[in-house]
Amino acid sequence: MKISQETYSSYSDEELMLRIIEDDESAFHVLYARYSKQVQRYFYRMLYQNIEIANDATQELFIKVYEKAKLFDSKKNFSTWLFSVASNQCKNYYRSKSRKPEEVELEGSVEILSTSAEDPIFDLSRFNIALEKALLELPVEQKDLFILRYQEAFSITEIAEITNKATGTIKSGLHRTIKKLAKALAPFHPKNLES
Fold this sequence. Notes:
This protein is mostly helical. The chain has 2 domains: 8-103, Rna Polymerase Sigma Factor, Chain: A (Orthogonal Bundle); 111-195, Arc Repressor Mutant, subunit A. It contains 10 helices and no strands. It has helices spanning 5-8, 13-21, 25-46, 51-67, 78-96, 124-137, 140-151, 156-163, 167-184, 190-193. The relative contact order is 0.11. Residues 106-117 have low confidence and may be disordered.
């Protein structure tokens, strides 16, 4: 018996996965609508900030979700399982590519055009551009930890489940990543902006 997508909107992710195991496409469409934009954003950040690669990776991920639905343990959290599959997909992508696609051109300039912290033109957009550039330079594991924690807002415990690593390993990995990013973003530190 098929249930309308509207009815499915009140279902939990885990309940939807149980319906997908029964080959219910309506349940799949609801789950796709819930997560496709978030997953696409994650892939975009992880895979060279390339929208075509992110779109392809998103489609590939949801094909896996549908085809491998029976592998999902309904006692577990769906979002951590989904991002675990996505994280592994990114690692496989990096392993299979001998070089990056064309150099990524970020909008705007990373230069600091103003040396005054009081200058309203010294804005968040310059910092974000510099952060995105710095993220591109990180090793894939460090980039993954940072994005999962600070841009996708997963807890340390959830990241440990996603990456299949101990929480202590996640904490120390995040610490090293933050130190590396702090060094790359040092020009934005208020002490360095004083005349």
